[in-house]
Amino acid sequence: MSTYKHIDKICIFMLILVLLVTGLFMNGENIGIEAVNILDGYETKLFDTSRVHSIDLVMDDWDGFIEECENEEYVNCSLVIDGESYKNVGIRAKGNTSLSSVSDYGNDRYSFKVEFDHYDDALTYHGLDKLSLNNIIQDNTYMKDYLVYQMMGQFGVAAPLCSYVYITVNGEDWGLYLAVEGVEDSFLSRNYGSDCGNLYKPDSMSMGGGRGNGDDFKMEDTEETPKNDIEREGNMQPPDMGEKPESGMRPQDKGAMPEAGKDDVSLIYSDDEYDSYSNIFDSAKTEISDSDKDRLIASLKQLNEGTDIAEVVDTENVIRYFVVHNFVCNFDSYTGSMIHNYYLYEEDGKLSMIPWDYNLSFGGFMDQTDATGLVNYPIDTPVSGGTIDSRPMLAWIFEDEEYEEQYHQYFAEFLSQYFDSGYFETMIDSVEELIAPYVEKDPTKFCTYEEFEEGVSILKQFCLRRAESISGQLAGTIPSTSDGQEQEEGKLIDASDISISAMGGSMGGDRGRRKTSGEDY
């Protein structure tokens, strides 16, 4: 009876308490209470790199889905991630040349893109909206993407999170994949907050880039630069064939990529017309207005003029990005002839670079074979298939002594942090130990277990000698430009005993050739 007698007083007390607590939350900062930073959750769950995670793809007609994978159409499925079930999720195959390359291996091991919010706008995985499941094609080491994303993130670059996942399909083993955070809404919120800028993925329609950007592109349709031109000893630049034309491109570079649609993906300013930047604006990952387009074009104009660079470039981010990028020798990128595989972020007129797709780094693009040339690749002339001034997002670093000095300082910092400390060797050994049992039992892998072991060993040797060469380049004992290396070839670090193809490559490597020719492997 006493409880019911005082019910009105209890309700009034509870109401007052709720109002007080609400007031504290709303005005906490004004009275000295700091806000708690609540993480979305996926950062420390799926992207915990201390273990291999599990994903079970549950689908009634898996065989039918695989047969239609090259159409890149979403279908409905369920995912069980580390024991947590998610229904009504969208999944499709992903890739570009890598998508069509899967069949060259006589394999159904496609990469997948998962959209948790494809059918249900409210569905996420602990805050994550998009997820890539990379099949680790053309990479016998299983580590190239993983290693670069880790390097980028730890060196202060906004990079996608990643971790290893062992995939099963309806409970049956499928294979070891790399889970990569989608560079979309969740990524932007994690790195830039809720009030973020605009995101683009520049890509030429003629040169690929996946669904919506060059999905009809085929490598064999291009006029391939002769391998002897790409793989000159000690200098991956094509040979000099005369005066450089006003466009900044030498004659031999033109065969690497069609001229049409090339300038905007290179971030070259041409004029103020929107259509001149269609390969940027058509691939916007955020909603953009005409004022957004005007602001980006204005930033590109100032970038190309080389004036007050700090007003239009996040110089700290971009220098750190290119330090890691130029270390890993990835020419399927902004610094290669294809000029793609990067995200461009713009906020308040400032531009920065976000890394993407490094499975062909460490010389894997076009199956390069000159290990000595790659190990010593010059850090001050790092463009392949073009010149520095044809890549304005990079050129400003070398046009100002202070920025170039900062670039060298950051390179020294990177080497000290990763290699002089012994961290790299410890890390790569621990990753190999972590994933080796899963590679061994992987039923769909593109290489043998022995090829995996050899690939990791070669990757480790490559990185250690690359670090040694760059230390010499920074100290001046090894030339840091292509011209200097041509003249003083004897000063280069010898890497003739390293087999680049053992790490895998874009042309399929020995295994791909054996597979397509019907040989045993």
Describe this structure in words.
There is one protein chain. With 521 residues, this protein is α+β, with helices and mostly antiparallel strands. The protein folds into three domains: 48-191, no CATH class; 195-243 and 252-412, no CATH class; 418-517, no CATH class. The protein has 17 helices and ten strands. Strands 1-2-3-4-5-7-6 form a seven-stranded mixed beta barrel. The chain has a three-stranded antiparallel sheet with strand order 8-9-10. Strand 9 (342-347) and strand 10 form a beta hairpin. The longest helix is centred in the C-terminal third of the chain and has 27 residues, at 449-475.
Order of strands, main sheet, comes to 1-2-3-4-5-7-6
Number of strands: 10
Structural class: alpha+beta
Helix content: 25-40%
Count of DSSP helices?
Answer: 17
Backbone CA Rg: 25 Å
Main beta sheet: 7 strands, mixed, barrel
What value does the average pLDDT take?
Answer: 84
Number of domains: 3
Unreliable residue runs: 28-39, 205-261, 509-521
End-to-end span in angstroms?
A: 84 Å
Strand residue content: 5-15%
Write down the overall geometry: globular
What is the N-to-C order of secondary-structure elements (H for helix, E for strand)? HHEHEEHEEHEEHEHHHHEEHHHHHHH
Features:
521 residues; alpha+beta; 3 domains; seven-stranded mixed barrel; three-stranded antiparallel beta sheet; 10 strands; globular; disordered C terminus
Concise summary:
With 521 residues, this protein is an alpha+beta fold.
Helix/strand layout:
Layout: H1 2-5, H2 7-27, E1 53-58, H3 62-67, E2 75-81, E3 84-94, H4 97-101, E4 111-115, E5 130-134, H5 144-154, E6 162-169, E7 172-181, H6 185-192, E8 198-200, H7 227-230, H8 278-281, H9 290-305, H10 315-327, E9 342-347, E10 350-355, H11 371-375, H12 392-398, H13 401-420, H14 423-441, H15 449-475, H16 482-487, H17 509-517
Parallel strand pairs: 1-6
Antiparallel strand pairs: 1-2, 2-3, 3-4, 4-5, 5-7, 6-7, 8-9, 9-10
Helix pairs in contact: 10-13, 13-15, 14-15
